[in-house]
Amino acid sequence: MMTGASKSKPPLLREDGKRLDGRAFDELRPLSIEARVLNDAAGSALVIWGKNKILAGVFGPRECIPRHDESPYRAVIRCRYNMAPFCSLEEHGRSGPSRRSQELSKVISEAFENVVIAESYPKSAIDVFIDVLQSDGGTRCAAVTAAAVALADAGIPMKDMVSAVAVGKVEGHLALDLSKEEDNWGDSDNPVAFASRNGEVLLYQMDGQLTREELDQAMTMGMAASKKVHAIQTAALRRVYERGGEVSVPLYLTPGEIRQ
Amino acid sequence: MEVQEELKHSQLLSMLASGKREDGRDMLTYRSISLQRNPLQNAEGSAVCHLGRTQVLAGVKIDLATPFPDRPEEGVLSTGAEFSPLGSHLFEPGPPRVEAIELARVVDRGIRSANMIDLSSLKVEGVTKVKAVYVDLWIMDHDGNLFDAAMLAAVAALANTRMPKMEGEKLVRGEYEGNLPISCLPVSCTFGMAGNTYLLDPTLDEEKGLDGRFTLATTPDFVCAAQKTGWKGVTQKDIMEFVDISFKKGAELRRLIQQ
């Protein structure tokens, strides 16, 4: 566990060569998704991925306010990524959008502009609100994954599903789905969102250093992993119609407890 | 919106005249309530209150902070509320609006006046810093009576808050020593007023037709916070009836937190 006092890089691999949480390099953290967890939102999803707990709610298509944001040709897609002040193990956060969260909101919105069939709803807005209730590294990928399920749950027409995963480099090895320590102290981080059917990259950011070959291999690893994420997303959507009953946010779930 | 409120108001009055509510409850019955305790791990304390279709999350963070200059020996309690735009089509992103500020202040008053947390126990010996308790109320689903749901979530979260271990003058994150000491469990009851009658635990639909609301927070022995909202005037007799009901219902709510 990282403490406020430690400033120097901790070891990121165990003596047996595995990652700190015991995962192999191509292994995702436990992931569970529950769709339709909110009553008022048109669509919603809770993603619990490792220790990340991300809630997404979708409203719309609805009147676009302020009006100068609207387009005569298509619905505007506005995603808002927001971190709760209690989401981190460290100190209490400030409320309101940070520079980081504004940037993430922008690139997440742009990812969905590609797949949502927005031309059907001119002069309207589709709002996707994403709250990070608990953060553990990889929140933007979990946010995109949650937003995609919430949009589908809301019945928004989409050409494709969007599934995201981060690929990084840890102690010289390419590794999937970086944990918080690996993200903080690793050599590279590449969050990628894929359109599941045609494999197009809809969101891509990168920091750190990778060779040309490593970047190519990272994309291949990410693509394979996004198919696993996609399977869990579609299972969550299917479960909405099998489940019925009262709607609530099952924040207490730990991955594995969810029926797959 | 005014037309809708007018219609809701007359509909509500005619329902109440026949002694009924839209969801079939009688006037002084709460919707079903359930609490999830500590569903989060990074926050030192957390709880979700489900009150009918209303869902409120409370998160508690413990930090070190500089005390207020006029209270150098006391810890800090700070309460905030976020009407997350995913919680209702009525909520918009942006800085907290007056309703969110009011909610946070009413819950803060209930906790503070009840002396639920002994702030003098949050002084850190030997340094100028004190421990700060940050309570954040996150409205995830708004179907009315946010005050009571937020109060239940906040108090349940505080009653399940772990204290981070201290090492010298620093907090060690992820390691804990004991729980936040609490002395009692304040709870609130909110009455909706319409015409010359009142009802407990209004839904959002009922709130739209109400003339006003009256919230009372109580401990087993004391009334510890109150808020009257809306234009409707109340008589002393009304208030005393609210007090009597609040003590009785408060005991039931407190049992839910203790379970």
Return residue spans of chain B where pLDDT drops below 50 for at least 5 consecutive residues.
none
Report the span from N to C terminus of chain B: 41 Å
Average residue-wise pLDDT of chain B: 95
In quaternary terms, these chains amount to heterodimer
Question: What strand line-up does the widest sheet of chain A have?
Answer: 1-2-3-5-4
Order of helices and strands of chain A: EEEEHEHEEHEEEH
Count the E strands of chain A.
10
Number of helices of chain A: 4
Largest sheet of chain A: 5 strands, mixed
Uncertain regions of chain A: pLDDT < 50 for 5+ in a row?
Answer: 1-5
CATH topology of chain A: Ribosomal Protein S5, domain 2
> Which structural class is indicated by helix and strand composition of chain A?
alpha+beta
Structure report:
The complex is a heterodimer of chains A (260) and B (259). In chain A, 27% of the residues lie in helices and 27% in strands. By secondary structure, chain A is an alpha+beta fold. Chain A has a single domain (31-242), classed as 2-Layer Sandwich (Ribosomal Protein S5, domain 2), CATH 3.30.230. In chain A, the strands form two sheets. In chain A, strands 1-2-3-5-4 form a five-stranded mixed sheet. In chain A, strands 6, 7, 8, 9 and 10 form a five-stranded antiparallel sheet that branches. In chain A, helix 2 runs parallel beside helix 4 (212-243). Chain A is globular and about 55 Å long. Residues 1-5 of chain A have low confidence and may be disordered. With 259 residues, chain B is of the alpha+beta class. Chain B has a single domain, classed as Ribosomal Protein S5, domain 2. Helix content of chain B is 29%, strand content 33%. Chain B has helices at 2-17, 98-113, 146-158, 204-209, 236-258; strands spanning 33-37, 45-51, 54-65, 76-82, 130-141, 162-167, 170-179, 187-194, 197-200, 212-218, 223-230. Chain B has a five-stranded mixed sheet. A four-stranded antiparallel sheet of chain B has the order 9-8-10-11. In chain B, strands 6-7 form a two-stranded antiparallel ribbon. In chain B, a hairpin with a 2-residue loop joins strand 2 and strand 3 (54-65). The longest helix of chain B has 23 residues, at 236-258. The termini of chain B are far apart. The mean pLDDT of chain B is 95. Classes of the chains: A alpha+beta (260), B alpha+beta (259). The A-B interface holds A 1-5, 38-41, 44, 51, 53, 55-57, 59, 62, 80, 82, 84-92, 95-96, 127, 129-131, 133-136, 247-249, 251-252 and B 36, 39-43, 46, 48, 50, 53, 55, 57, 59-61, 63, 80, 82, 84-89, 93, 95-96, 132, 134, 136, 138, 140-143, 167, 170-175.
